[in-house]
């Protein structure tokens, strides 16, 4: 019987299994988050999510003996990146989730690669080709179909929630497009740890302040378990698994798996929240996915 070494398993099945797990974790957040937001305020949930993740990352990095950064100037760079990558990102996402549906959230979150490409092009890191422009326009039309600008108004809670999710995607796109050099220099695990530490300095106090009117004694143990899951399962675990897989696979392969996330979110929203996906939603989803696929496909090809 042929012996299969752990190294061979790592180079084949394990990284792909890790990426599937990443999208399951991230895809579960809109549904689990909707349940928790019925009890806790959005900013409070952000504080718990960021704080729990920061502690988890710090423990892992301390155990690995790779806690401190190589260059002192990188602390300032990562502090700035934490504003876009975590503080604004998480605040906009959770706040938007509290005002719109889990299915809308999952779809609009899929525009992150579009914003990443746009910011990269603006910074001169990537050139927009014709196929990429078509992809951006298709995805943009898909977002317009979903929001329906003729009916939208800022008095509509759902519309405001959708716009917050779009702003969240832009914020995270800025983070991804501008973080490559510092993350490459320090490593993904160490960089993410400090991004979350700096974000926790802002998010945790704000979260605790927003909890001042919540009767904590009436919050059930199930809700606290879901909060712990959001911090460890839907945030810390996927970040670590994604970084681990990225060290073993090409960035283009890792990027492809992000498109499992909305699909998982749609299925969970239908199964557990009773949300319906109508023809308009299906059309919007199709346009966004085609646009994101065209843009990302040409973008990743140019990197190989």
Molecular structure report:
This protein is 78% helix and 0% strand. By secondary structure, it is mostly helical. It has one domain (16-303). α5 (102-109) runs antiparallel to α13 (260-273) and α9 crosses α10 (188-210). Mean pLDDT is 79; it is low at 298-304.
Low-confidence stretches: 298-304
Shape: globular
Instruction: Work out the radius of gyration.
Output: 19 Å
Strand content: under 5%
Structure classification: mainly alpha
Oligomerization category of the chains in this entry: single chain
SSE order in H/E notation? HHHHHHHHHHHHHH
Mean pLDDT: 79
Summarize the structure in short.
Helices cover 78% and strands 0% of the residues.
Fold blueprint:
Blueprint: H1 6-10, H2 13-36, H3 42-64, H4 73-97, H5 102-109, H6 112-122, H7 130-147, H8 157-178, H9 180-186, H10 188-210, H11 221-246, H12 251-256, H13 260-273, H14 279-303
Helix pairs in contact: 2-5, 2-11, 2-13, 3-4, 3-10, 3-11, 4-8, 4-10, 5-8, 5-13, 6-8, 7-14, 9-10
Properties at a glance:
globular, 304 residues, mainly alpha
